[in-house]
Design goal:
With 188 residues, the chain is of the alpha+beta class. It is 39% helix and 34% strand. It has 7 helices and 8 strands, in the order ααβαβαβαββββαβα. The chain has a 6-stranded antiparallel β-sheet, sandwiched between helices.
Length: 188
Amino acid sequence: MRKLVTKFTWLFVIAFVAMSCSSKPSLQKFFVDNQNNDNFIVIDIPSSTLLNFSDDITEDEKKTIQSFRKINVLALQNDENKNEALYDSSKKSLKEIFKDENKYKPLIQTTSKKGSFDVYFEGTDKNIDEVIVFGYEKNMGLLVARVIGDDMNLGKITKVINKIKPNEDGMNSLGNLLKQNIDLDKIK
C-alpha cells in the first residue's frame, strides 16, 4: 500500500510539473523576461498612488474603484530606430501572445498616423481580472500597460469614473519618473 501511495505521489508531482512548464508565451513571462533589460522601462504603480475619491462617493462606488490594484507598464523607446530589432521582435512576440482570444479578449483596436493601440481584457465583462493596453509606433517604440485588479466590472467602472480624482502627488511623481526615462519631446 505504501508503494502505491508513493507511486501516485510521484505521478502527481510529474503531472503538475509538466502542466506548469508550458512553452506557450504569456504576457507575464514577457514582462519578467524584459524587466531587467536596460532597453525597457518598467514601472509598477499601485492604484492608490494615482487615484483619490471625491467626497460624494458611496461605499459601493468606493469598492468598485478599489477593484483596481495596480498598473504595470513596460515600455521600449525606439528613437532614431536604435532598438529596431528589439522593437520588431517584441512587437511580434506581443502580437502572438494576444492572438490567444480565449485568454485576451479584444476590446478596442485602432490605428492612426501616430501609431496603433489595442485594448484587451482578461476575464469576463462582469469580472475583469486585467485590462491591457498595447501601443506601438515604429519610430517611437512600444508600450504595454496592465491594469490589474480583482473582479473589475466594466459597467460599474463606467458609472463611477467621474468620481475618481487624480492624486496630484502621485501624478507629479509619475510625470517626473517618465521625464527621467523617456524623451517626451519625441512623442508630441
